[in-house]
Write a structure and sequence with these properties.
The complex is a heterodimer of chains A (195) and B (200). Chain A is an alpha+beta fold and 195 residues long. Chain A contains two helices and ten strands. In chain A, the strands form two sheets. Chain A has a six-stranded antiparallel β-sheet, with no helix packed on it. Chain B has two domains: 35 residues; 156 residues, Domain of unknown function DUF1254 (Immunoglobulin-like). In chain B, the strands form two sheets. In chain B, strands 1-2-8-4-5 form a five-stranded antiparallel β-sheet. Classes of the chains: A alpha+beta (195), B alpha+beta (200). Chains A and B meet through α1, α2, β5 and β9 of A and α1, α2, β4, β5 and β8 of B.
Chain lengths: 195, 200
């Protein structure tokens, strides 16, 4: 007499497991990115199709979930980095230096954001630099220091946040979905030391 | 019951659970843009409700506050940009957007569906003699406009067919230096968005 009841129980638990697993997979896939077609170049990642009309369902879902209105591909392309050039995760207790070069674009901006895409409160009140207002050495090269302590020159602070992301936005760049990317043409993120 | 028999007993249920997981995953990804409660359109619409009388005075453009910690409306917006938004509901008529572009500073327009996905984007490089003139309509509205065109004069405006009746246009002007912000904001303020009344 136990057998039929046992079957219902198993069917129910299979259904609940399936539901939970399905939602977990969805949450995991929407968390870190925007679906397929990512450009990965050194520590930097961009999803050019997230701003193109041929957007895939994963990117569409990720944008809606995050409340994001991305740059159109004809406007520009956003690259994010959550690790340094050696592959270690960015930690706001550590100091980093970002150095030349940058890919071709009419303008670019480079700043810090939280993982959810909000600017980080910091004592300097500065959230990023543009290609025009960054201080350059003779010849046009530049360094940008990320540190909680004030630095001379180009400096951004992650403030009290525990982790952060670097966001590089290239406005009117010739890079498109068919571009071949060369890591040597993207800025390096070097860890200088940790407090 | 041996261990092997037990394993075979569980196998069909495991397969069933995995199949259900697959279906749930696909359906939830496809449904997210429709059911996400805080998508870009919902955030902007809520802000517009609080801002409506002021927006009407500014030619239908809602200026967004500078992106700053705790004050940002949309995720992953550039703090160096002065931004404005025109929400559209094509059921009320096509949207007519006009802007001036001096061609010196970056000025971008992205046209979004309610879920945030982009269906068209342009920058000041697309301006014709320093003017950007765009009409957004649904397929029927654009067809009617084309039918009304006279043969002699070509239409001055760019016509876009929106894939969904609800959506928004995000206007971004770059402040190259923090001190340029007010100037960039003024160029966003100079944009006009009007709902074209339906043709009689």
């Amino acid at each position: 007499m136990r057998a039929p009841f046992d079957k219902y129980l198993r069917a129910l638990s299979a259904m609940l497991c399936g539901l939970a697993l399905g939602f977990a997979i969805t949450a995991a896939t929407l968390k870190g990115g925007y679906g397929f077609g990512a450009f990965r170049v050194g520590p930097w990642t961009a999803w050019p199709r997230a701003g193109a009309p041929d957007i895939d369902p994963y990117a569409r879902a990720a944008l809606a979930e995050r409340g994001e209105a991305p740059l159109g591909l004809d406007e520009g392309l956003m690259f994010v980095a959550s690790a340094d050039s050696a592959g270690g995760p960015l930690d706001s207790r550590c100091d980093y230096r970002i150095s030349d070069p940058l890919p071709a674009a009419r303008f670019w901006t480079l700043g810090l954001d939280s993982a959810s895409g909000a600017p980080l409160a910091n004592p300097a009140g500065r959230y990023g630099y543009t290609s025009v207002d960054i201080l350059r050495r003779e010849g046009g090269a530049f360094d940008l220091d990320i540190s909680r302590r004030a630095r001379p020159g180009n400096w951004l602070s992650p403030g009290e946040a525990t982790s952060f992301m670097l966001v590089l936005r290239l406005y009117e760049t010739p890079l498109d979905t068919a571009a071949r990317l060369d890591a040597a043409r993207f800025p390096s993120i070097v860890k200088l030391g940790c407090a | 019951m041996t261990l092997k028999e037990r394993a075979f007993g569980i196998l069909p249920w495991t397969i069933a659970a995995l199949l259900i997981a697959g279906v749930v995953h696909i359906v939830s990804v496809l449904l997210t843009p429709w059911v996400a409660p805080r998508d870009a359109y919902a955030r902007l619409r809520d802000a517009a409700k609080a801002d409506r009388p002021a927006a009407a005075a500014r030619n239908g453009v809602m200026l967004l506050d500078p992106t700053a910690p705790g004050a940002q409306l949309l995720s992953f917006e550039d703090p160096a940009m002065a931004e404005g938004v025109c929400l559209f509901d094509l059921a009320k008529g096509p949207l007519h957007l006009r802007a001036d572009a001096d061609g010196e500073d970056y000025f971008g327009l992205s046209f979004h569906r309610a879920s945030g996905a982009v269906f068209h984007a342009m920058t000041d490089h697309a301006a014709n003699k320093g003017k950007i003139d765009v009409v957004v309509g649904d397929a029927r509205q654009i067809e009617e406009m084309e039918a009304d065109d006279s043969d002699e004069a070509l239409p001055q405006e760019t016509r876009l067919t929106a894939p969904s009746p609800l959506g928004f246009v995000l206007i971004r002007a770059l402040a190259k230096r923090p001190s340029d912000y007010q100037r960039a904001r003024a160029s966003v303020e100079a944009v006009s968005c009007e709902i074209m009344s339906p043709q009689p």
